[in-house]
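Re: beginner question about structure tokens

> Can someone show what the tokenized structure looks like for a real chain? I only ever see the sequence side.

Sure, here's an example I had lying around. Input first:
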Amino acid sequence: MSNIYTGPVFEMARNQFVSVANYLEIPEGHRDRLLYPKRAITISCPIHLDNGETAVFQGYRVQHHLTLGPTKGGTRFAPSVDIGEVSALAIWMSWKCALAGLPYGGAKGGVTVDPYKLSRRELEGLSRRYMQEMIPFVGPHIDVMAPDMGTNEQVMAWFMDTYSMYQGRTVNEIVTGKPVSSGGTEGRREATGLGVAHLIARALERLNMPAAGSTAIIQGFGNVGSFAAIELARQGVSIIGVSDHTACYFDRKGLDVDKLVAHMAAHGSLAGFSTEALFDANELLVQPCDILVPAAIERVIDEKVAPRLQCRILAEAANGPTTPEADAVLLSRRKEIFVIPDILCNSGGVIVSYFEWVQDLQQLFWGRNEVITRLRGLLDDAFERVMARVDKDDVPHRVAAMAIGVDKVAKAKAMRGLFP
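And the corresponding structure tokens:
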């Protein structure tokens, strides 16, 4: 297979797949078709900068498989974006959608850029150029985009508008995660964080631990981490540690979540929130707590961090926060640490994105209560199926979750056959 699929994040995805394929006893000759993406698109995005110069940014879109329906996945604007990372994220999205029972394959896209160094006009120009270059390869029944790191509702509105201008009509269903005023759905913004908190509640129930009085540490206080913190605090959980890329705070007595959220809204980051609670970000993950929520980037829990974890529940709100080497450590600590794997833990976002897509196609919209009720129903179903497989086969939670997703895609490919 071509070596364009390289890098530590892709190797993580490959290693995880191999472990699950071994468990499922998938024949060697069938594995490459399941693992490697159907399409990998690389584009150049030239834009005019405010200083009059022209800059060219590299963009990507990977569509893993279209066996179950159109592909679905976010688009991130970040300096670290490369084809290997995007491919790994698309692969994980495939297993996530299959686990949640959604009629999608996985996709992911991105641009190698620091969006915080762009003006609003430059960001709009880059967003529109990226979608313009992608128009031949995407569509409501081909590939549906969504927000990710470095993008938001506004970027999705620019994507949708650009695609619509080329079609000569409004096509709301080309992206999800849009503003409600532009065909978005109630509940989408908070869906991933609410889903994380809901699954933590299910894990607490399984462990016979009360939410009230439990403690949580959240690494990453963006959209996912902040809404998870709000919902956990509402359930009575004490948030004792938080961080983002600018600052880290820890207080055993608990932090004021409402004030943290208000500070984020006013300043765009956690920097400057407090001087008394400042803490070493490198040590936050290993502090004693009941619930640890990595909600930032990939590979933050490695073979050095895993032995030092002091949590009872590890809720992977980020994609790929735990390396395979760390998984080997967590395997030996299965009785100590209850893992909610990423493809289950953060699936609330794609589930409500699916609801948004369905509503856009039908032009019939639901209220927030209906959205959240349906979300919890699908999360409960996925959680129960994962736990049933854990209990039946005595396998780690990640293997159980991925096995359900991989098995569904494998069976669908086998039934459809290989054309021509």
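Each token stands for a local structural state, so reading them left to right follows the chain. DSSP finds 13 helices and eleven strands in the chain.
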